[in-house]
């Protein structure tokens, strides 16, 4: 006991030293053994391990298929044997079989003359509602959920436009990535790197991810409140406003009109205002729906979703108000804005979606409700404070930088709480990995949630910042999070809910192509930029001429372009899958009905 | 009362107030305070032309690849004499117009070099124009985009006197009878880049870099050895940093803009006086080439000696090496000369 306490005291004392190696003795000699770098390598190995596990599970399925084929072969041999049999012998077997088939129970074999009654409702009252399910459903069959037609329509339109912006935004991203390899690809002002880069980031942020989240959110809000959406019309208005904002913003950016170059707030304020209005409308719509819920408790998903909307509104207002943005005030707000855009909007909203769609896809409750609540409040506390870690060693106040670094370390709490919760929910359902691609998508997303966020915290430490800041490592990190976490989880939600809404599931081979192309592409993208970024940082520290760091990056930029191409192709496959799921209007037959009828009759 | 699980009003209100409070602590108050800075003595406002150049800098998204912040760590010493301080940004960071806010200049990526001090490091307009038209004319390995739309090709006969002509090297040259001139935008952008110079801190104030371990050790060694030889300084590397953008890595220069050093009679002269004076004072004696800036303020005697020796012994050049002492003497001589 005493030992334990002293250990804890020691750790508490050491922790600040671990995360705040303030000034002295930074060298490149043993960079490989610095805690931040070791941490990152370990984290990447985790991702790699998960990929291998998924691959093995898939291989296992193929082995099973092979075994089944062997059995079929045996059956064939049996048939051949039958053919070789004499006629009288076959007749005799057939006679016996006919007799067996025509046999009927009289109904009173057990000695009773009464008809069957189900007094306790054990058979008739079987329910598939989330409350108190009597037994688990089979997973891989698409179950049509009874969804009001207007809700279904609005969700599909949100998701449809989101898919468009994903394909558009990543096409631009892919093009921009290729310019690192071939800088002379074109000489049009509106296609130049500086103008297209924000087109890419903003299109995938405000177009793809935001629309997809809100669309998926509409379903969660209605479903978990057990009621109808407050106002469908305003849902359509905000859909139009967001699309308009992204469209106008894209055109303005290509025309060279941007809001001063601060990352993720390149849209000028009239454009961002449209987006903000849409967010406020959506918030009100969700809020009123939750307020009129038919159950007492507010499901934890709705906590996250409502908070994401309200936090983002505040964020947009602070980010665009001009009163405190001259001088370096702009930089303080920039750090705050760009980090909270990711943390309070995308991450918070997406967490809300996981809390519904992950248990729903596995048809079981979330592992721990309280962990979800803990993660919620710590998310707010820690995430809000860490924006300035984008400006470590900058002329911003040292105390602000230190606060950001300390709270970055604090991010471990919500991240570990969330990851534990999701993994424990998955526990016991691992066989789903071989049955469908929904769980692999979720699993990759959740693992990246842990890896990406933890790696981000490590990157905020002063030594790792020393090596990695300003290098391509940052780009790798943002793709690890916005793509590895947000996009993979959104895809998992798409594949969870769309078959249930439309009754159509795309061929597994296409979903598989989507998954593997996106995953391998992301891995190539991120590894090349991480390796190249590290070497670049070391080259700078060693005081080599700047141009050498450009030259050494060249092969890594080629690999990045290759990874990016794989990712883009996977989006085309995904767009096809989406089309496949929404195109066919024919509802599937309700598989449950015949079962119950059979039991009843 | 605080039943977040059942009361949606309390839940939303708590999330809202919590976030707003934290945002004020970590963003709004610090941002408000950061606006309250004084300019440094000697710091000048941007001229109209330079401000237009800054707007172009933002318009073309230069901030995506170029930072403008010298961090207080040793490796950033390449980009400026001292770490950046809030006052450095006082004139460039005000709202651009009603539609666009103050520009975000610090940047988050250094795909290209930091530009805090580019006006001192590279003051030549000719170099900047060539580099903007096509960066690969002067820096072969560069991946920066070209900006041909800032330039205009005209009939050679119609070139007016006040037009700024860009002399393109072989392989990039315009077809015969036509000449490339810089549009106003190109000149504004270059004017802005030339204006980017770190202002010296007033006397007595020092902003220090956090040193790297290696640096501390080498400096320690130097002290131990007494008068150190200049061998610690890598002339080839310094040449790459300070000279190669114009004279090129292979010493061949850029035809029509920057003279070759390989085979140059000045470099190969046994008497190094003219060569060292050119490095110290700059050079503008030959009309077919762009003028060269003085390096006296930027390079120490030892560094100049190292660079000169690299030039005198590379690319087939073969001249005797010079010493730091010779450079020091010439510097004294040059400084005592009455300025003309």
TrEMBL record, chain B:
Q: Keyword set for this entry?
A: Heme, Iron, Membrane, Metal-binding, Transmembrane, Transmembrane helix
Q: Pfam families of this UniProt entry?
A: Cytochrome_CBB3 (PF13442), FixO (PF02433)
- For whether the record's keyword set contains Magnesium, the answer is no
- Single GO molecular function: heme binding
Alphabetical list of SUPFAM superfamilies matching this protein: Cytochrome c
Q: Where is the Cytochrome c domain?
A: 48-197, 230-315
Transmembrane residues, as ranges?
12-32
Protein known as: Cytochrome-c oxidase
